[in-house]
Design brief:
Blueprint (H helix, E strand, L loop, with lengths): L2 H13 L8 H17 L3 H11 L3 H19 L6 H16 L10 H13 L3 H13 L7 H13 L3 H12 L4 H20 L3 H13 L7 H10 L5 H12 L8
């Protein structure tokens, strides 16, 4: 769907009766599920599958997109923006970025980036995070790692867990010896911020930081504590990390 088609779709939605809009309770549940999945660090494929379980009929999927389009239209024609409407833009962008496996909606990465960017420019941390991902992976826009990490940083300042994790990973990978110690400290602080918000991989990395003396003093008790917090979601990675504490010569895999 190009921009003109999107406007046409929106106008069609506006012309529909109220019963075509998605029930507010269902919309609230879908959004809560969607943003919780992001905070926990689920991969996009897993998030899409989670959404599809809620959108188990064509009617519900159509009503959802109609409602999100209406909210986006209301936002564009208003001088003020609510947090809820900005979140609607992010969810709408995700739907068009990933599409649905049942082909109810096809992918349109350029339209997805546009929705993310509108939300990001209005100050939404999830929009900023997804714009960063778009720049990093070339989704609807040319790859630009500098811009990607600028958006991750802006989002992380709002304590967005996914952005904190991404930005921490960036600091963690710095290989310049004279910068490594300071970057490891920054990475650790970002990981623990995301971990406290429930991000699974951030919990694991926080545990590894305590184990490996990355950006913090070595503390085996804290390492085990954080690793166990992530065990239900990533048991194989956690088991490997826990084995390393007792068998330190084993290779580290994460």
């Amino acid at each position: 769907m190009d921009h003109q088609t999107a406007i046409s779709c929106t106008c069609t939605c506006i012309a529909r009766h109220d019963h075509d809009a998605l029930d507010p309770g269902i919309l609230k549940t879908i959004k809560k599920c969607f943003f919780n999945a992001i905070d926990c660090g689920l991969k996009k494929k897993q998030i899409r599958e989670t959404l599809e379980r809620h959108l188990n009929s064509r009617d519900i999927a159509t009503q959802l997109c109609c409602t999100l389009e209406l909210n986006a239209y209301s936002l564009s024609s208003s001088t003020s923006s609510s947090a809820s409407n900005l979140e609607d833009l992010v969810l709408l962008g995700f739907i068009y970025e990933k599409g649905f496996s049942n082909h109810w909606f096809k992918k349109n990465e350029e339209f997805a980036y546009q929705k993310y960017r509108e939300s990001a420019d209005a100050g939404n941390s999830y929009g900023q995070y997804f714009v960063g991902v778009c720049f990093k992976k070339g989704i609807g826009i040319k790859i630009d790692w500098r811009m990607a990490y600028e958006f991750f940083e802006v989002s992380a300042r709002q304590r967005n867990p996914a952005a904190c994790y991404k930005l921490g990973s960036g600091y963690d990978r710095v290989q310049v010896p004279e910068q490594k110690k300071n970057c490891r400290l920054k990475a650790f602080l970002l990981y623990i911020e995301a971990a406290n918000a429930g991000h699974v991989m951030a919990k694991i990395l926080t545990g590894l930081c305590y184990e490996m003396n990355w950006g913090t003093e070595r503390d085996i008790h804290q390492a085990i504590r954080w690793l166990l917090k992530a065990n239900n979601d990533q048991p194989s990675i956690v088991n490997n990390a826990l084995l390393r504490i007792f068998r330190p010569h084993d290779p580290l895999i994460y």
